[in-house]
UniProtKB/TrEMBL annotation:
Protein name: ubiquitinyl hydrolase 1
Entry superkingdom: Eukaryota
Signal peptide start-end: none
Region (Disordered): 1-39, 945-972, 1150-1169
Upper lineage: Eukaryota, Metazoa, Ecdysozoa, Arthropoda, Crustacea
Protein species of origin: Cherax quadricarinatus (Australian red claw crayfish)
Any GO MF annotation of the entry: cysteine-type deubiquitinase activity
């Protein structure tokens, strides 16, 4: 707070721009002007209270004017002290402790001193004189608050005395001839006489203060370090003003007493004093005050020298016996001495000059008294303690006094200690290392290596961190080179754990990368060459490879637009340049490939000697197992190729494939090889494109297909597509490969994988065949039928060959295994056909008129309510009848048909529970949709097309699953090109598939049976079977038993269970077709079937024992399910006819009915009743 003070003016009349004053002329803070008054008791309590209140205000006031509170309280205190009753007054003691101290602290040291007027300063001086008088009266009682105030009053550096330094002295006027022995103090410099301070010192002497001080020391009663400090400190501050006779008479005897007293202190007393000294630094202040006083006396050089020696002696004692605080003070003292002697040439003051204690003598004293070893004993866990120690060691280094034994002691101080100590000492060494001589640095590194061999894992981590820090900010490269060499040596230690070795190498790379040396690139090249040498000698291979990669990665990649022919910026090297130089200089790719081959050769020998070896347990270098050894070499090779923008050439590619894939020792070797070559053939291949075909044909296609794994299939897939793309046989379009030439390279191998690979791999190969042959390029689009025919013929030929093989095999043990192998292959070929037909059907965008057998018959009846919300009135509703084998597209068309909407740009959107039914699902049958009987669907009509925007919440404008216009008929011509339709047109395919199904039943191989039937289900009904059924029913309906055609019984009482099941399924699809059971063609067949004895046939199948009596249960179950459907249809029809006869609804136009046992049934068609009867 800024303070203004006013004195000797009328309370009401002050000069302009001055702060207000109290009525009694007290010193006021700004804004203060309150009436101050109070009585005077034995001790003026009112004045004391008033003073306390004023000095504790936020804008404090110290009343220094005459007869104001401060002066009155001082006079009252002097009176009480003179009478010796001050200690009985608690108010007086409180005044000493608080009011007095605070008041003089403010008026002598506050920043506002400079702003006060001269009259105020005169008043302050008068109060200081009163204070001197009070101190002298109490001097013999060692009253610490007053002695502290004495030091403040006599300090030439206080704000008050600094401001008034030019005031002349009244006791020693300028030009006076008063002799020194007649005075106690004299101005030291006429230009800055500090006259008021001189007057105060003389007043102190005039009042007998110096004599009392001398007698106090001579008596020796109750002397202690704090008392001595408090008594001497004021005069150590103003020693320049004291006259020589005063010092000789009063202080030189004290100079003899004090060192003797301090030297006679016991260790316990000194330790106790050191604890107290933590706050006030008493010992240091005593010696400093004495030194200052002695320096004023001529011919006292020996005394000054003895005082320096005594000072060092006391410091040494404190270092040896003190607690932490005492040691810290002692260290501070050492550093003060070091500061003085180190900067001797920069000190100009005559008082501060040290003539005897030089830097050399100080360093010698530290060495002789083993100060460094004493300091290293304890407290090293405290960072501030180690900071003091650092200054001492720096001084010793500067004076060239640090020995190798000293370094050993510093290093030993942290060995095996708490990590806080280790950290602090390591930090210390990291800071000091730059000041060490080469010999000291070498010795320190020797300490590192010695400790390394015995250190724990955690200690090694700390040591590595220290070693790395030593190389930071090294611009000359000397330190960095030493550290790099040391780290390299440590990483090569056989006993070091792998984790620590990795940390050492990481630190090695960081130093190389962050080095400030101008030769950083040369350093990197040197260590790259060292790593390559390790590789050439086949020692320490994996760490060397890792280090090469890490050093190369420290270089930045070239920018994306960087051209190979573009010259890089001077002093800038890109990563690919460095790798290219390594490749040109050392043939690094060849080197690593050869090393991998040699390594695998050794592993192969070891595996022969011990066939039960586990690759995870083989650790050839006692660090990394076999799996990691192979993967790391391959990973490094890929790094060289990718980041170095290099091609893998044919010799190395074949070399790696041969040692890992063809001649693999363990399965994991081959797996690693597959993965590696797959990555090599990624979006940006690293294998030379010119050798792809040769490598594919002469290496990959020669590998046993049974050895392929999932990664192997992925590898083959990438090579297959890359090679055929380069040859123009495959075209990449929108991330899909289109076949533009059916003579593909490697397709025979795909078939070998299908037939010989494991189940999962065969599935991947089947998927590849499906993907390849169902995505035709522009050149083959026109030849779809030929492509389909060729593919189907190829599959059927393979199946026929396998079927013939199985047929001729005997049933011995070996034959059984061969049969299982062949039937498994047959199942896979059937799966190929199934996937092929399904994919082609799925890609067919139009409605189907020739339905697959599996959904050619009418399914379970469903009734759906389609609701059209209309704003403001009841919604329109349409009841739609459908069945589970119908499609969602059919429902949409039925809705449009019921609405009689013929507009070409209108389509219907359907919603189930507010969720839109995607038009993509239009080809799905209802059985595969979450629809149930009596469900409600929400619908709305939307306009689509180029002229009318679609509804914001409508689905897409077109659907791949439905025709563009609801009334456009199916594309029969395109449908006839589908492979399933092509197969259904050739009876030999159907008959052969039925033979395969029968073979599965005979051999009890459910997979073969079900695979053949699944393929038949996705094919339309065989045309021969359909025509045969129509012909039999027609002829028997017309001429009955006289017909030359086979009977209906012959088609269901056959020796082939699969043929029977198939005939029943086709029969039901003809009786109840999925599309329109009321169509004329369907009605005709229904009529002919009933007329040709269909009811009797159904009853016979249910009643006779010879119907599928010897077939397997799944076949029998499937057949009877169809029979029950037929029975339901037939019995309902017969029942309907009987009801009509009984009701008299049969006309007399000659309509007759036969008995149920057979004969003619001249009744209405079953469709009249069947359409309204749910058919399960």
């Amino acid at each position: 707070m800024t303070i203004a003070m006013i004195a000797n003016q009328d309370p009401q009349e002050g000069p302009p721009n001055t702060p207000p004053q109290g009525s009694d002329g007290e010193v006021l803070g700004e804004g203060e002007g309150e009436d101050l008054g109070g009585g005077e008791p034995d001790f003026p309590l009112a004045d004391l209270a008033r003073l306390d209140e004023m000095i504790h205000r936020q804008r404090w006031v110290v009343p220094v004017l005459p007869k104001c509170e401060l002066e009155l309280l001082l006079e009252a205190s002097i009176d009480l002290c003179t009478r010796g009753v001050d200690t009985r007054s608690e108010a007086c003691q409180r005044f000493f402790r608080e009011g007095l101290t605070i008041s003089f602290t403010k008026i002598l040291t506050d920043e506002a001193v400079n702003s006060w007027k001269f009259e105020i300063h005169r008043c302050i001086l008068k109060n200081c004189e009163k204070l001197i008088e009070l101190v002298v009266v109490k001097l013999h009682q060692d009253w610490f608050p007053l002695l502290d105030l004495l030091a403040m009053v006599l300090s030439p550096n206080s704000k008050f005395h600094t401001f008034n330094g030019t005031r002349p002295s009244e006791t020693v006027p300028q030009g006076s001839q008063i002799l020194d022995y007649e005075l106690f103090a004299r101005p030291p410099d006429p230009r800055n006489p500090r006259g008021w301070l001189v007057d105060l010192i003389n007043l102190f002497g005039k009042l007998g203060g110096f004599q009392i001080l001398l007698e106090r020391f001579q008596s020796g009663k109750n002397l202690s370090v704090p008392v001595i400090c408090a008594l001497l400190r004021p005069f150590g501050l103003c020693f320049e003003m004291l006259t020589v006779p005063t010092i000789e008479k009063y202080f030189m005897p004290i100079v003899e007493v004090v060192p003797a007293f301090l030297e006679n202190l016991t260790d316990e007393e000194l330790k106790k004093e050191a604890k107290n000294e933590a706050k006030n630094d008493a010992l240091s202040a005593i010696i400093k005050a004495i030194k200052c006083l002695v320096s004023r006396v001529p011919s006292q050089e020996e005394t000054a020298k003895n005082l320096e020696i005594f000072r060092l002696k006391m410091i040494l004692r404190l270092l040896q016996i003190s607690s932490f605080n005492g040691k810290m003070n002692a260290l501070n003292e050492v550093n003060k001495v070091i500061t003085n002697v180190s900067y001797y040439s920069h000190r100009h003051g005559p008082v501060e000059e040290e003539e005897w204690l030089t830097a050399e003598r100080m360093a010698e004293w530290i060495k002789e008294n083993r100060v460094l070893q004493i300091v290293l004993r304890d407290s090293l866990h405290q960072p501030q303690y180690v900071e003091k120690l650092e200054k001492i060691i720096r001084f010793i280094i500067k004076e060239k006094a640090l020995t190798l034994e000293d370094l050993d002691d510093v290093w030993a101080a942290q060995h095996g200690k708490h990590e806080a100590i280790v950290k602090n000492v390591h930090d210390l060494l990291a800071k000091l290392a730059w000041d060490f001589s080469p010999e000291q640095l070498d010795h320190l590194f020797g300490c590192f290596q010695t400790s390394w061999s015995q250190a724990s894992k955690k200690q090694r981590e700390k040591l590595l961190e220290l070693i790395r820090r030593l190389a930071e900010d090294d611009k000359d490269g000397v330190m960095a080179h030493k550290v790099l060499t040391l780290l390299w040596s440590l990483a090569h230690s056989d006993d070091v754990p792998t984790e620590i070795m990795d940390q050492a190498l990481n630190a090695h790379v960081k130093i190389l990368d962050y080095s400030c040396s101008q030769d950083r690139d040369i350093q990197k090249k040197h260590w790259l060459d060292r790593c390559v040498e390790e590789l050439k000698h086949d020692k320490w291979v994996l760490p060397a490879l890792k280090q090469i990669r890490e050093i190369c990665c420290s270089y930045s990649e070239a920018p994306p637009n960087f051209s190979q022919h573009q010259r890089p910026t001077p002093h800038v090297s890109y990563r690919h340049d460095i790798i290219s130089k390594l490749q040109n200089q050392h043939s690094l790719v060849v080197l690593v490939a050869d090393n991998l081959t040699t390594y695998m050769k050794n592993i192969r020998i070891a595996a022969k000697e011990n066939p039960d070896l586990n690759p995870a347990d083989i650790i050839p270098d006692r660090r990394y197992n076999h799996i990691y050894q192979v993967q790391e070499r391959l990973s490094f090779l890929r790094f060289l190729l990718k980041d170095g923008q290099l091609w893998l050439c044919a010799p190395q590619a074949k070399q790696i494939w041969n040692c890992l894939a063809e001649s693999a020792v363990f399965t994991v070797d081959r797996e690693s090889c597959f993965k590696w070559f797959s990555k090599l053939m990624g979006d940006e291949p690293d294998l030379d494109p010119e050798i792809n075909k040769d490598f594919f044909e002469n290496n990959i296609l020669l590998l046993d297909p049974s050895l392929l794994t999932e990664n192997g299939m992925k590898c083959f897939d990438r090579f297959f597509k890359a090679v055929n793309s380069k040859e123009g046989k495959l075209i990449l379009k929108r991330r899909v490969y289109l076949m533009d030439d059916d003579d593909l390279i490697g397709v025979d191998y795909v078939w070998r994988v299908v037939l010989c690979g494991t189940e999962d791999i065969a599935s991947r190969a089947i998927e590849l065949l499906r993907e390849t042959y169902t995505n035709l390029g522009p050149r083959l689009q026109a030849n779809q039928v030929i492509i389909h025919d060729d593919f189907l013929s190829s599959c059927m030929s393979r199946l026929k060959a396998m079927y013939d093989t199985v047929s001729v095999l005997d049933q011995d043990k070996d034959s059984i295994n061969r049969v299982r192998q062949e039937t498994t292959r047959m199942c896979r070929v059937l799966k190929v056909l199934y996937e092929y037909v399904s994919e082609c059907d799925g890609d067919f965008g139009d409605d189907r008129s020739i339905l697959p057998l599996g959904r050619a018959s009418r399914g379970k009846h469903l009734s759906l309510l389609v609701r059209f919300p209309v704003q403001g009135r009841q919604p329109d509703e349409i009841d739609v009848w459908t069945h589970t084998n119908d499609t969602m597209g059919s429902i949409r068309r039925q809705v449009l048909h019921r609405l009689k909407s013929t507009a070409p740009n209108v389509k219907v959107e359907l919603y189930l529970n507010t969720d839109p039914i995607d038009p993509v699902d239009d080809k799905k049958i209802i059985a595969h949709m979450p629809l149930r009987d009596k469900m409600v669907l929400t619908a709305k009509l939307v306009q689509v097309g180029s002229n009318m925007p679609s509804s914001p919440d409508s689905s897409s404008d077109s659907s791949t699953g439905s025709p563009q216009h609801p009334y456009e008929g199916p594309n029969v011509e395109a449908e006839n090109c589908l492979p399933g339709v092509i197969m259904s047109g050739q009876a030999k395919y159907t008959q052969f598939l039925l033979q395969l199904a029968d073979l599965g039943c005979t051999l009890q191989l459910s997979q073969l049976r079900d695979s053949a039937r699944a393929l038949l289900n996705i094919m339309p009904a065989d045309q021969y079977t359909v025509n045969n059924l129509r012909k039999i029913c027609l002829e028997h309906a017309k001429i009955g038993e006289q017909s030359m055609s086979p009977s209906l019984e012959s088609i269901v009482f056959s020796s082939s269970p699969s043929q029977v099941l198939y005939n029943l399924q086709v029969l039901y699809s003809l009786l109840m077709p999925a599309h329109n059971p009321m169509a004329e063609k369907a009605l005709e067949f229904q009529y002919n079937f009933m007329k040709s004895g269909g009811v009797k046939l159904i009853i016979d199948m249910l009643a006779k024992n010879n119907f599928l009596s010897s077939t397997d249960m799944p076949t029998k179950r499937s057949a009877f399910l169809v029979v029950l459907k037929l029975a339901k249809l037939a019995f309902v029809t017969v029942g309907y006819a009987i009801v009509n006869v009984i009701a008299g609804s049969v006309t007399s136009s000659g309509t007759t009915t036969s008995n149920v046992n057979g004969g003619t049934e001249d009744v209405s068609s079953p469709s009249t009743g069947s359409y309204y009867v749910p058919v399960a």
